[in-house]
Amino acid sequence: MRHTISVLVENEFGVLTRVAGLFSGRGFNIESLSVAPTLDATISRMTIVTSGDDRILEQINKQLNKLIDTIKVIDFTGEDFIEREMALIKVSAEEATRAEILRICDIFRGKVVDVTPKCYTVEVTGSPVKVNAIIDLLRPMGIKELVRSGPVVLGRGPKGWKGN
Amino acid sequence: MKLTGSKILLESLIQEGVDTIFGYPGGTVINIYDDLMGSSIKHVLTRHEQAAVHAADGYARATGKVGVAIATSGPGATNTITGIATAYMDSIPLVVITGQVPTALIGNDAFQEADLIGITRPITKHNYLVKDVNDLARIIKQAFYIARTGRPGPVVVDLPKDVQIATAKFAYPDTVELRGYKPTFSGNVRMVEKAVKMMLSAKKPVLYVGGGATLTDAHGELLELAETLQAPVTTTLMGMASFPTRHPLSLGMLGMHGTYYANMAVTNSDLLIALGARFDDRVTGKISTFAPHAKIIHVDVDPTSIKKNVRVDLPIVGDLRDVLQKMNKKLAEHKDETALAKETLKSWHEEIAAWRSEQPMKYRSSKTEIKPQFVIEKLRELSDDDAIITTEVGQHQMWTAQFFDFTQPRTFLTSGGLGTMGYGLPAALGAQAAFPERQVIDISGDGSFQMNSQELATLVQYRLPVKIVILNNNFLGMVRQWQQLFFDKRYSETCMELPIDFIKLAEAYGANGLRASKPEEVEEVIKQALAIPGPVIMEFKVSREENVMPMVPAGAGLNEMVLRTA
């Protein structure tokens, strides 16, 4: 089963390796991982998408908590949360397909952020399912290159991770 | 007043109560060694950095304090790896200080540079690269705190040469602030109450005790619990010596080379109480047939140990000693019931007694050949009660666990988790440095001994009177045993063809060597050796193809023990 976990860690030298090494060393999956500092510059927030059965997920949670640099682990499984991912998609834009690309872009509330005579670069944000959908629609036009940020998540409602 | 980094390091060690460190000098720690001259800290120069870490580990296991080792950058640092991994697997508190090339050169493939933080990440509880001398005192404080609290473990502090030379104001912090590290010490009282309820209603309880009992010095509490409940006690290799082996409730060790009756008791129990143990594969055998009828209570300070390998009915996270004290206190409220424990569990005790008499721990004795088990028994008979025993890894280690009776805690130092050959001699060195007056004996095989035999020099130099028993069968015996049993006696590369003259080797280092080739010589050799005030090698030419029995073949269940070699 797919799980999305947020890990708040000390924004310190080597912390990414500690987390990534933990996953590889213990044979856990990482589907995606994104990391950036938080409002508090001493804390980084990682969002990890992983998969495994209940026993493995319990281990992942515990092992992450065991790292000295880990401040908090939030598993969003079963929670109400917002999940967003960004993609930049470089797609061939010929005479015949340009209008269609713009239309698709519109439907997904994407933006064309770079234009050349033969190519558009599209920026789109949404849940991974939505990003998958636009990629599927653009694929027949000829995707030249693609980058996805991996999802980031926040719980819904007024509560922050500190519980207030 | 400002101090240099190297002085801050040594001052911090003194603040932590460190009196002895083990190490080996080199280019990037030369400043520290310069300041060591005239310091109150005693330094023991081993002949290999791996031995320095094992010695610090032996010191830590024997004393309960944090062991400290030091090595230079590059090869010095990489030589510490096996020692660090050994301590990590057995949860031994260590602080290992390694030199590093100057910060400006890090990443440049400088002379004697290795990314030690990268290399040691998976085998340390935590590690630090110190980039600023102003952080050094805080980091040392944190390193010791992390090493000894929660589930103990090794912490590496990588210290670049320029940081050792730079100066800063020295003030050793009083407290540690680590927002991400708050290990649970106190066991949950409600869970303890539930556990006690389960204990009181169990008909076939077994206490399964691991290294946590030693690490928390909980032997007194453990004895009280076992006697109150009248519950039989089996220990892992790491738990040995935390419960007296000769106690009527002791079942000895369980698992692959455990006793028949311990494994049968676990297989048939209705309540397995795991205390500071982690259900290692050498203990459980095939998981699906492990304690199939038992409810499992698991007490451990490390939440990741719980439900990692087996299902658990009642987990309790906390310091084992704290939890045992709470259990004993709660049980004291049930005196009426516990007073009858002997009666209530009578049939369980009878069942176990039957297994015990059916398959006692024994070996076939010989009048012509020295049996290794016989040497172990004689050694027990002739050594002090508080003698500290270390082992290497292999057959001799298992025979020691099976046939040496331990009566006091922290008297059995062995590499359980990693299974490191070459551990025993340097660990004995470290234990002897901590307790110069006690008997310290390394029980070894001819294979393992040669992995760190250079430490004979350290023993002689520092007048550390460690006694070394070599059970010499000219084989890598444990692997040979597997080849005999599972590979059709194809002894591929397990015969140590070159017979070493261990007596001459001892003498070359200025130590003593004694040899026994016949059973009747064994006692005399041990007596003589124990009477010599310096280090001694006792070489016993033992029967070559003796096997460690009984044995649970890898992947089989505990109830499928092979009792003797066909």
Keywords:
heterodimer, A: 164 residues, alpha+beta, 5-stranded antiparallel beta sheet, 4-stranded antiparallel beta sheet, 9 strands, 40% strand, elongated, B: 566 residues, alpha/beta, 6-stranded parallel beta sheet, 25 helices, 20 strands, 38% helix, globular
Describe this structure in words.
The complex is a heterodimer of chains A (164) and B (566). The mean pLDDT of chain A is 94. In chain A, helix 3 (95-107) runs antiparallel to helix 4. In chain A, strand 2 (32-37) and strand 3 form a beta hairpin. The two termini of chain A are 30 Å apart. Chain A is built from 4 helices and 9 strands. Chain A is an alpha+beta fold and 164 residues long. The relative contact order of chain A is 0.19. The longest helix of chain A is centred in the last third of the chain and has 15 residues, at 128-142. Chain B is an alpha/beta fold. In chain B, 38% of the residues lie in helices and 16% in strands. Chain B is built from 25 helices and 20 strands. In chain B, strands 3-2-4-5-7-6 form a 6-stranded parallel sheet, sandwiched between helices. The radius of gyration of chain B is 24 Å and the shape is globular. In chain B, 55% of the residues are buried. The chains are: A alpha+beta (164), B alpha/beta (566). The A-B interface holds A 9-10, 13-14, 17-18, 21, 25, 55, 58-59, 62-63, 65-71 and B 117-118, 121-122, 125-126, 129, 131, 146, 178-181, 302-304, 307-308.
